[in-house]
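Residues determine shape. Take a concrete instance:
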Amino acid sequence: AGVDRGRIDAAALAGHLAGLRALPGLMNAALGLSDAVARVAEELAKAQDILFLGRGAMFPLALEGALKLKEISYIHAEGYASGELKHGPIALIDAAVPVIVLAPKDGLFDKTVSNMQEVMARHGKVLLLSDAAGVQEAGRGSWQVLTLPQVAPEWAPILYAVPAQLLAYHTAIAKGTDVDQPRNLAKSVTVE
């Protein structure tokens, strides 16, 4: 449809399709991080509060990661747009509040890293999720890093959803909660 409307050319379409075809393999690589995520989750399970930060397309994923974490681990978790850090959430940062930063090496990476450095300056424990180039550039000083495969920006939210979900799952397991039967959650919503 984009080609028909003249918004992208055939070469751009081919690039998008190639990226889409590569996504299942990249997701398998992300699933391979499960053991590393489980080790990090042992520490996350001790927290009372956890923050997720993301910018651009990573912001909705930060919201989703926080939602899943609180739903099955019962840890208070909030997702924030990285650029909004100084508008309130920064007051919550200390050594007891892990901050999960979703930061693929894309056009917004430098701004996200700047916010991450604000967290570290306040002794926050940063868990950085990025690709190898991002970890190389910004991983120093982070409490933990999880290195994902490089992916085109349009597919990053899909790929980064895998470790976000794994973090929720393994943190809940580490806490001993029932991930198959979360308390107070309805399996379906009915409206009367």
